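This section describes the prediction task in plain terms. A model, or a person checking by hand, is given the sequence of a single protein chain and must write out its three-dimensional structure as a string of tokens. No templates, partner chains or ligands are provided. The sample shown here is typical of the held-out split.
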Amino acid sequence: MKPKTICLIGLFFFVLSYVMFSNSAAFEYFKKPVDFAHWFNLIGACLLLSFNHVFPKNRLNAVASVITTLGVVAHIGLCTIDFIMWSYGDNDAAKAALSEHLSNTPSILFPFVVVGPSLLFVGLATHAGNFIKTNTVSALMVIIGAPLVGFSFFVLKNGILMFLSCLVFVTGLSFLLFKNETKSIL
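The expected answer:
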């Protein structure tokens, strides 16, 4: 399978997970019989590693590849934590105890919950920086969409805006994947 195809499949799973995350009532539905939202997020994030191989090879790409890889590793850790949390079902006391334990363990909290998962967005936005002169609109969609995903979720606590930000981010990446074919569009 071609790396671009893997990237597109990864973007599809990533967006699908954000559709599920964006609606809290529906999100509970997608947690049965397995936590589909986090599985799709995990699969999508892992497949997004392919972006490290489809963009031009230069210094910026090398830095972006390291950041993207760290972000994927952090997504794996975060999804693992979320799977453990999901496994407690309705046991709110166990969930609270795990949350407290994670909050008191900075070596897990920061790389896998607070900072690490954002690195996937930062890495892909850094990749997009390669195209700021040649595919400005697409690159800006990625560069602006990346922080908006986190801002809309953590600051505004708005699931719909988070999803729309993710959609802008993913659309920009899709256009950059096929930059020669979309140059006339954008």
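For orientation: The chain has one domain: 3-182.
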